[in-house]
Write a sequence for this structure.
């Protein structure tokens, strides 16, 4: 069964494929930025009943260096059978598409990452027929991103950092900065995506508990202007609905005042007063402007 961390560690490359080149550029490997990315079929099964499926497969087209395939595998522990599968993926994909291939393995602990780096060989002592050397991302080389400005500049890399270091002692600092940044984003759909990926990636680790605590706030998940406006609109609708159910007439002036108010505290007071009001003016405090 595929685990949540397994899913998140390769899904992040589906959602933001260019995080691959950005990450490895910080490690001294100058992969060019893609100008076009295509998500490709991950099923590598042949006519034989044995199923072989890579986690994520991307076709990366660059401006100056042509195209290559990026196969992303998430590995949670050492598995002596896995290198043979990776070798199959590499040979099959190269034969099928005729493109250069990069095999990327993502890990959440240093021991697994060091093992996954290989190299793995197929052959005899006298002659190596094939040598497999995956690129590996793990706690040993993914940067710890705790600077708020750096997080805001590159949310995907910060998310990858949070997931990769989620089991480490410094996880709380990484997670806190990421949580604060996601809550302030105007692009809420994007923020929700990376919040979900972070929680999936942390699995059942202590970091997951920390993340859930950081993302549980008294008001709501996000604090952007868009969210404030939407919550105000919803609260105004609740007020008008209760007044209607209680058969309290609402004048056009009062309706405009309610729907045009964006102060959640004021709207909260009005909502409370709908339960005891006998006329719509009972909602409003004379001292309120």
């Amino acid at each position: 069964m595929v685990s949540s961390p397994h899913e998140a560690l390769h899904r992040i490359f589906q959602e933001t494929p260019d995080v691959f080149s950005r990450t490895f550029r910080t490690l001294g490997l100058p992969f060019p930025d893609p100008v076009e990315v295509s998500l490709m079929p991950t099923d590598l099964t042949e006519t034989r009943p044995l199923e072989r499926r890579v986690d994520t497969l991307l076709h990366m087209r660059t401006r100056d260096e042509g195209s290559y395939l990026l196969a992303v595998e998430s590995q949670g522990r050492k598995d002596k059978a896995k290198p043979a599968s990776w070798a199959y993926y590499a040979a099959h994909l190269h034969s099928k598409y005729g493109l250069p291939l990069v095999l990327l393995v993502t890990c959440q602990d240093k021991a697994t990452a060091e093992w996954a780096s290989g190299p793995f060989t197929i052959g005899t002592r006298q002659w190596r027929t094939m040598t497999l050397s995956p690129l590996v991302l793990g706690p040993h080389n993914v940067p710890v991103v705790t600077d708020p400005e750096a997080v805001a500049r590159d949310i995907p890399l910060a998310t990858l950092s949070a997931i990769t270091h989620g089991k480490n002692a410094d996880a709380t600092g990484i997670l806190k900065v990421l949580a604060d940044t996601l809550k302030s984003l105007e692009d809420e759909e994007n923020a929700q995506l990376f919040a979900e990926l972070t929680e999936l990636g942390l699995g059942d680790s202590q970091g997951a508990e920390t993340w859930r605590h950081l993302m549980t706030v008294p008001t709501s998940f996000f604090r952007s202007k868009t969210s404030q406006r939407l919550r105000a609109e919803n609260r105004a609708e609740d007020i008008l609905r209760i007044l209607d159910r209680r058969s309290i007439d609402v004048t056009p002036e009062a309706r405009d005042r309610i729907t045009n108010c964006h102060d959640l505290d004021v709207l909260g007071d009005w909502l409370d007063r709908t339960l005891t009001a006998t006329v719509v003016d009972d909602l409003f405090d004379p001292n309120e402007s």
